[in-house]
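Researcher: Please translate sequence to structure tokens.
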Amino acid sequence: MTANINLPDTVMEWPAKYNEIPKAVFEEPSLWRLELDNIFYGEEWHPIVHRAEVPNPGDYKAAFIGEMPIFAVHGDDGRIRVFHNACAHRGAALVTDNAGNKADFECPYHRWLFSREGALVGCPNSHEFSPSFSKEKFGLKELRAEAFNELYFVTMSDKTPDLLTYMTGAVADPLSRVLGSGHGLKLLGYQKVHYDCNWKAYVDNDGYHAPLLHLAFKLMGWQGGKGEQIVTENGHLAFDSELTIPSKIDALEDSSIVQFKGDPDSKGSIVVSTFPVTVFTKHMDMLNIRYAFPKGQRGVEVHYAYFARDDDSPELLAHRTRQSANLLGPSGLISLEDAAIFTRIDLGNRSPGNAIFQKGVTDEYKLAFNVKQNDESGNLPRWEHYRKRMGFRRAKA
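Model: Translation complete:
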């Protein structure tokens, strides 16, 4: 659906050329309510939790879809469910911390008590409740969820296609390899950061900038490496890239941090970005999910979750742990420049006009899905999916 919001013409009507994006789309405050309705609460799947983050009965993790608080919990029956983080009585939040373990979930307001499976199991003075009351009617509201390689996605719409159809096979393969290709994972830990930019600036990263902005990627041969960029009509993209590690790295006193054990799942770097706002990376031996939570029109909070395989040797476990945040974490050897550029993008897009994509664009009036590793044109199908979801009209050529 499209909300009835008055929008400036520069946003409502997109340029005829597919490689031009209105800068106002990053800065117009009224867009956020429309994005909530059409994207975050619409026909999209949002990754929320990996089983490795809640491995035991009673383990839970809190998150958001748009502005809506939710939490996932590992039930006594082994199932992982995702609920609205709201008491079924008067709506008070049940979970106020990020993660933990509980035998049950009690609302402090009126002491209603819910099981790990979401059932209402206790409520004081229920003999004085309304005639139609029954405990069976007041369980926690469960969201539609599906799992892929033990990663649980949720959607707010019953019209969203099944998860595998939504991801498409082209993206499912590299994502499976990021998530261990059937091996179990275990959580190493988190880093959390707040970027001072619109959420769309955060996910508008492209293949063109990688060896130019990031000295570490240039060092590892990203520009000349053999790789591919996979794009889909519904806004997902993936990079499957070969890295070449030089035998001597003068820029680092200890170059073991960039050692690549070379497991068969990767040629060096896999990056998957699912619409609208989640990024997955297997860079060298680091396994990472970046759960992103937009904070309205401005600001995005990103939780970097790091994993190892549960059958890793002690040596490999130590290597993955050391490599994790030190490479692609918020202040890692590769990612630190991104944090700075996100803010610059947000600042510069307050100027009028359009952001104009160039590298890889062969026809300005058509979308291309056959793109090279270092093209920026791979982001354009994502923008077209966004435009359609938002109901914006495109100007005629």
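Researcher: Any highlights?
Model: Residues 314-328 form the longest helix (15 residues).
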